[in-house]
Amino acid sequence: MILNKESSGSRWRTRPDGLDKVSGKLQYLTDMTVDGMLVGRVLRSHHTHARILSIRTWKALEIPGVHAVLTHEDVPGLNGFGIAHPHQPVFCSDRVRYTGDAIAAIAADNDEIAEYALSLIEVDYELLPLLDDPEEAMKMDAILLHAEGNVLHHTKYRKGEPEVVFKDCCHIAEETYWTPRQMHTYMETEGGLFIPEDNGRLTVYSATQHGLMDRIQLSRILDIPQEDIRVISSPIGGSFGGKDELNVQPYGALLALRTRRPVRLHNSRAESVRAGLKRHPMKITMRTGCDDEGKIIAHQVRIISDTGAYATLGAEVLNFATEHVMGPYRIDHVEVEGFAVYTNNGVSGEFRGFGGNQAIFALEGQIDRLAEQLQIDPWELRRRNLREYGDLGPLGQEIAQTDGAFQVWEALSNSKLMDADDSRLISKDQHMRNNEPWIVTGTGAAIAMHGAGLGYGIPDPAGGRLKLAIDGKIEAIFGYEEFGQGLIATMEQMLMEQYGFGADDIRIIIGDTDVVPDSGSSTASRATSMMWMALKRLHPEFTATLLEAAASLSNIGIEGLRIGPGGIWKLDEEVLVSYSELARGLTEPIVCETKFNYPTTPHPRVGAHFLYTYSAIAVRVEVNLLTGRVRITDQFHVVAAGPVANPQGYLGQIEGGSSMAVGFTLSEDAVMSEGNYLTKNLDTYLVPTIIDMNGKIEVQAIEDLPDHDTYGPRGIGEIGSVHLAPAVASAVFHAVGKRVSRLPIEPESLQETPFIPHKAVKIHAG
Amino acid sequence: MPDKSLASGDVRNNTFTLNCLINGKAISTEVPAARRLLNVLREDIELSGTKRACEMGRCGACMVLMDGHPVNACLTMAYQCTGTEITTIEGLSEVGLHPVQQAFLEEGGFQCGYCTPGMVISVVGLLGENPQPSQAEVEEALSGNICRCTGYGGIMRAVNKAIEREG
Fold first, then answer.
1. Least reliable range by pLDDT among A260-274, A426-440, A562-576
2. Using 50, 70 and 90 to split pLDDT, how confident is the model at A430?
3. For the 2Fe-2S ferredoxin-type domain, which residue ranges apply (chain B) (predicted)?
């Protein structure tokens, strides 16, 4: 199905959070204010790498209007945070490792006073050698950034004997690929409001992708029980993985508890760039060999990932990249080795695609290079190597079987973009006959198999609760967060379609640790699948209980009743008992709860996935030879992710993911020099605008799953963003005959000397 | 010397009384002359629909209409607002949703929604001057508004619907 409003019919619904968003009424957590509120600010390191000799705060404390100045001495509990490895200091005490490192925080009456007071904090440093290159940091004599060494994580996967088999290869492609330090660039920067309540509890209004995880971490830092902290974490103005780690929360919480006043923090964009997470820059070296039929038989990979000063999810991202450098291909002899390395650069962390983007760019580049050597169509070469139904996953693990890889391959082959195969053979000479001979076009394609969920060996709980509330609303209570992806809309649509409720009957409650059960995090393309599975599990009990309650009120047997909009219906006739009547007739509310885990592979290989989404993409590009600029004129995405739970959300996720990938491919790089960001704001960090995205995008959704499949819709939050770069690189090669191995594509690498008329030169020379 | 006809107030503290219309309401407030309109709106008069994002005029999240023209509230100083009529996102829907907002709602021209107020303002500003813009004119008018979520597909469909309805 080509996914659009027309093909979706009545399933194209207005989002329940839409009215408040388009009217500007929606209060994000950074919009909140309360009387008597102070503003919080954080002092960050002046240096990329230095020992701290002393910190003097007394001058700042003397400024009228300053209510607190906190340093490491004021952290009652653990002076560290991090989802996987809580070693990023809340406040540095003896050493700074990057310029985003926090040293002190201030609460003041207003921004001006806070700013001035910040300037009065004196820190004495002793400079330490800078490590801004992961390969330098791996050397034996490099200064240690952390006691355990500069390698945060090392992955190794091996099967067969690649070095032996390379000798039998007819063709071998060897290349090194570089990917950029991409920035999430959520439009709402980090921030929130922190309120010490009269009853001694602390309320945290601040964005996150997992409120319960924030609560655990804040409890450790503040040394107060989790129950004394309430985290309210939606709505969020974008995250894309970037707000999953704590950011302003420790400072807001500490300042609020110290001053006993509400404190608001809201990062400026420049502060957000400096302190916030980025996508891991990776250098991926690959050697890939095939036989004379194009069967890939050997594949060797080395990944160097720059994780920056602290771990966050650097190890997990590297695990993901290690799994995805083999992709949806059957390769008998493989060796992958990866290193996530600490440096004094900005901290890298979780970002939509989670290391898949980098891996897939490199892998698909290899396939194209081999196809060129074999002189066959690169798309055909993919078919010859594609995994088949029944094959194990990339790490040799059991996976939920679908025919997704072939489905997307075939659908793309039949697309207009690929069908215009003759267009793929148009030579540059033919383009020269156009009116604008400096514009050349090309078509390219790529394929991806992208894992969802956290993977084997990482706790990945899910669950939720349904309740008939006292006022007659059907409450769906889940521990997820809405950061724009349309989770609330998808949940509403599932409740309507799976259960038969009307939109007005439903109240969705998320993002409040005081009331939600643990549903796991809203990451890793997992939430839609988990909501669907939870509602499936809750269905028999919840509907039976509602119908029984209605039956006992109406004296009609449950076989004569059904769930419908507005209440319980007498089969096809009319509403017999409204939900509010039902609620009033109850002595105890009707509540059903479920708890389960995200499905994982039984193979004990940490991080290996079980559920995958498949996608293929074809793009058509124009390359301007004078400027070297690439413009994407057409994109065709085929996505095999099971049933479309919410057409508007699905289309939006693919279109939006693709736009993020356009940035990754063509313009986005948070450039650092000697550990300092040269790109500090959106004047030099170039996110695609509407002009950059003015090409045509079509999305085809393949919904079939095998009859026995019980897992329902697969995640689509990341799949739109992972394979555009290699498709564009392939199209650029088709257009200009130059191979791209570094992102974002450097225009100067594609520029050609303008055509100079001979005559003019002769006259000049004469 | 500050121009007394435009500015009154405590000149020593570099403040003045800003007199302007905001969403049709007369506002008179004492602010530093160089205070940005963004802060005046969000903090002083608590209209949080105008969003803070890049604060250097590149993303358009803080767009408002000044005398009908879209401006970045982060680049507009309070003194520049004297005697003008400012319309924020809140002002567009005081009597029901504006047709542009309605189009965004129906077409799903938003996801996280943080860029939406600025985006809507830019579209309203454009259609106010040119009710039947070409595709290129729409793209140019919206090139100062960054949306990180939608890939602009939904936004373009919403704008086209709004144009269709205007016609």
1. A426-440
2. low
3. 16-92
CB neighbourhood size of A128 (10 A): 17
Question: What is the number of H-type helices and E-type strands within chain A?
Answer: 22, 28
Whether B32 is in a domain gets the answer: yes
Domain containing B73 equals 15-90
Q: Which of residues 220-249 of A touch B (CB under 8 A)?
A: 235-238, 240
Residue A307 scores a pLDDT above 70? yes
In B, which residues are within 8 Å of A688 by CB distance? 152
Question: Tokens 């967060």 appear where?
Answer: A481
Angle subtended at Cα A493 by Cα A487 and Cα A499, rounded to the nearest 5 degrees: 125
CATH topology of domain A29-128+187-238+243-275: Aldehyde Oxidoreductase; domain 3 (3.90.1170)
Task: Tell me, yes or no, whether B58 lies in a domain.
Answer: yes
Give the per-residue pLDDT at A760: 54
8-state DSSP, A588: S
Question: In this complex, how many residue pairs, one in chain A and one in chain B, have their CB atoms less than 8 Å apart?
Answer: 181
Asked whether residue B107 falls in the same domain as residue B49, the answer is no
**Yes or no, beta carbons of B142 and A15 under 8 Å apart:** no
Q: Chain A contacts of B105, Cβ < 8 Å?
A: 14-15, 18-19, 22
* Cis bond before residue A643 (omega within 30° of 0): no
Alpha-carbon span A434 to A37, nearest angstrom: 64
Rounded CA gap, A676 and A346, in Å? 8
Q: Show residues of chain A in contact with B152, CB under 8 Å.
A: 655, 659, 688-690, 693-694
Instruction: List all residues 6 or more positions away from A178 whose beta carbon is below 8 Å from its beta carbon.
Output: A281, A282, A283, A741, A742, A743
Please tell me the CATH code under which domain A282-455+604-752 is placed: 3.30.365.10
pLDDT at residue number A763: 52
So what's the ipTM on this one? Answer: 0.95
Residue A141 C-alpha, separation from nearest chain B C-alpha, in angstroms: 41
> What is the amino acid identity at position A505?
D
Give the residue from B59, B90, B121 where a domain finishes: B90
Q: Can you read off the two tokens belonging to residue A729?
A: 């690189």
A227: its two tokens: 């129950």
Tokens encoding A424: 């793929």
Separation CA A540–CA A682 (nearest Å) = 51
Same-domain status, B55 and B114: no
Tally of domains within chain B: 2
- Whether residues B86 and B103 share a domain: the answer is no
Sequence-ordered alpha helix ranges (H) in A576-701: 579-584, 647-666
Interface of A with B in 510-569 (CB under 8 A): none
Q: Which residues in chain B are closer than 8 Å to A486, comparing Cβ atoms? A: 111
Tell me the two tokens of residue A462. Answer: 């899910």
Beta bridge partners, A445, equal: A618
Q: What is the CATH number of the domain that holds B162?
A: 1.10.150.120
Note the pTM of the prediction, 2 decimals.
Answer: 0.96
* Residue A683 touches chain B, beta carbons under 8 Å: yes
Per the CB < 8 Å rule, is A18 touching B143?
Answer: no
Last residue of a domain, one of B90, B114, B131: B90
DSSP category for residue A143: P
Q: Give A356-385 as a DSSP string.
A: HHHHHHHHHHHHHHHHHHHTS-HHHHHHHH
A468 three-class SS: strand
Task: Report the topology of domain A461-597.
Answer: Aldehyde Oxidoreductase; domain 4 (3.30.365)
Helix (H) or strand (E) holding B105: helix B99-107
- What is the rounded average pLDDT of the residues A559-579? 92
* A713 at interface of B, judged by CB pairs closer than 8 A: no
Considering the domain architecture, whether residues B84 and B19 belong to the same structural domain is answered as: yes
d(CA A200, CA A215): 16
| pLDDT tens figures, B57-115 | 999 999 999 999 999 999 999 999 999 999 999 999 988 999 999 999 999 999 999 99
Determine, yes or no, domain membership for B2: no
